[in-house]
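Entry:
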Amino acid sequence: MNYLDQLILDYGDQAGLTGLALPELGALSLEFDDGIQIHLDELDEKLVIYSQVGTAGEDQHARLELLLSANLMWRETDGATLSLDPYSRAVILAKSYTPLELNTVYDLQSALDKFCQLTQSWREALR
């Protein structure tokens, strides 16, 4: 069992979700009380957390300019990135974490809390 598997298992135990685990293929999806759904996936021994925060919309030029500006030096994304899925036109907020950033279940809980807040902020901004 690698560190991410153990971290997710420990988080699940703390949250009352015994046996929580990353799937072999695809991502683990979690939905929080405020309706925010986030996904956790492993990529190159990093934990990637992502969520859909909107769609490209009708005024794509202005919206995409906003997203690009926010991504500049991660100034408005707290180290995350905003991107556009070319097939669904969904705007995705994503952030990756190294093992050094997530040493304990409390680090993971903090990262999830901050990511949910950031997701909510970007959902509101893209309405």
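The chain has a mean pLDDT of 92.
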